[in-house]
Amino acid sequence: MRQAGRSLPEYRELRVGTDMLDACLNPELASEITLQPVRRHGVDAGIFFSDIVIPVRLSGVDVRIVAGRGPVLDDPVRTAADVAALPPLDPAALAPIREAVALTVAQLGATPLIGFAGAPYTLASYLVEGGPSKEQLKTRALMHSDPETWTALLTWCAGITGAFLAAQIEAGASAGQLFDSWAGSLSLADYTAHVAPFSTLALDAVRELDVPLIHFGVGTGELLAAMRDVGVDAVGVDWRLPLDEAVRRVGPDVTVQGNIDPALLRAPWPVLEAHLVDVLRRGQAARAHVLNLGHGVPPDTDPTVLTRIVEFVHAHA
């Protein structure tokens, strides 16, 4: 997952004195942070270091990262006038992203790079809530109380996310991954009617670029088939649902990604090893399985554990 670098001492050293969003927009820094976990762990692909709200920031919206909390906006977007005032994303603003990807791809050589972007619903959640929220009450209220404003907001979010992901793929990323971090707050009916069409719209911006597309969400076990239907090659599965059950829901002709429980990174190795064996076994039900964590790497993870996982999987998969 994209947070793999957070547990590395070299990452923390590199980030000293640099704001998170500033790091994402510094091509040399973003490239080096992307490369660090690949060098350290020997994984089979890198994933572009960025943040879900970067396209929001590049559009000119005042958003910042607050330590221990996450993205915060002082002026949330909650009315039709607020949405109408959202600025368009100037394609020229994506230049640092293109440069960072090009630098990274040149260093990776034959190792592929996965592009990264936040799904429209997750972007909308930050904009409406003004920061992280577990239940997205204001966001879901807007969805139902003002459908026109909701459509306008999600259309804007889909546009900037699609452009952000397209910039990465055009600069050399070999695949694209759409993260819907907060989709787990939705019912299947709400996701299908009010969210999935805009994820489809975001991905429409990159379909002609002909690279594999991955869709991942947290707490989205009940949504997996609908997430598949936005038009992707692979669906990410967090740690809550066994992979063989996930395959039953999405069908055997879909690649799955996941689903190591991040909590078990702290467990004794025999416990973690047994979990890895189980995840690998269940993943065989799919046409292909990208072994990965079910969500991000906790910052206090011992990096040697991650390296050991990679070595184990390479030896046993």
The main pleated sheet reads as: 7 strands, parallel
Strand line-up in the sheet with most strands? 1-4-5-6-7-8-9
Terminal residue distance: 19 Å
Q: Indicate the low-confidence ranges by residue numbers.
A: none
Domain unit count:
1
Beta-strand content bin = 5-15%
Describe the structure.
The chain contains 14 helices and 9 strands. The chain is 48% helix and 13% strand. The protein is an alpha/beta fold and 317 residues long. It has a 7-stranded parallel β-sheet. Strands 2-3 form a two-stranded antiparallel sheet. The model has no long low-confidence stretch (mean pLDDT 95).
Task: Summarize the structure in short.
The protein contains 14 helices and nine strands. It is an alpha/beta fold.
Task: Give the arrangement of secondary structure elements.
Layout (H helix, E strand, L loop, with lengths): L8 H7 L4 H5 L2 H15 L4 E2 L6 H5 L5 E3 L3 E3 L7 H5 L10 H14 L4 E6 L1 H10 L7 H9 L1 H24 L4 E6 L7 H17 L8 E5 L6 H5 L5 E4 L5 H8 L4 E6 L8 H15 L5 E5 L9 H14 L1
Parallel strand pairs: 1-4, 4-5, 5-6, 6-7, 7-8, 8-9
Antiparallel strand pairs: 2-3
Features:
two-stranded antiparallel sheet; alpha/beta; 317 residues; 9 strands; seven-stranded parallel β-sheet
